[in-house]
Amino acid sequence: SLWTPTSKKMPLPYLGYTDDELFPLVHGAFPAHCLLMMYPSWKYTPMVTLVVAGFYAMLYVVLLTETSGGAAAQPLGSTFNTLEDVMRHLSDRQNAFMAYVHFASFDLMVSRWIVADAWSQGIPHFLAAASIPITWLLGPAGIIFYLGLKSGYIVVFQKDKLRKAPGKRRGAS
């Protein structure tokens, strides 16, 4: 079956740990997201969340380099061209762990961007904070949710941002 894991514990030779031993580290994304939601203006929040996301990005690259030559990482003749191929890749323990680390890093970086963008646009933090759990758990749905909130806020409360770009207007001579 495509959904049967193809390997047991994944030893990581360069790191000296298994995927089971490293997996709890990925849960550091939860407190980092909580910092973004509850303490966005704490002077250490930007640094802590960047370090956490950066750590996951580096872990992902290490995992990628360790598994890129292995048969489990890319079954012979497989591609990402069909859903069946993608399912085959993700049914492998190594690839599933790498995907989870990828999601943890990327979703945290997107959440950081949401908070920074809301602040730079003058959007109240509670609106940005509402999108962070969605981004953390559902990825792209969170960014769409935030962009919808941002657009609605600008239409209702910042109409001056909707003015037409400078230049000739229709009918002007």
Automatic annotation (TrEMBL):
Keywords of the record: Membrane, Transmembrane, Transmembrane helix
Keyword Transmembrane helix part of the UniProt annotation: yes
Transmembrane annotation, as ranges: 44-64, 97-115, 127-149
Entries under InterPro entries matching the protein: ABA4-like
Designated name of the protein: DUF4281 domain-containing protein
Species assigned in the record: Hemiselmis andersenii (Cryptophyte alga)
Taxonomic classification: Eukaryota, Cryptophyceae, Cryptomonadales, Hemiselmidaceae, Hemiselmis
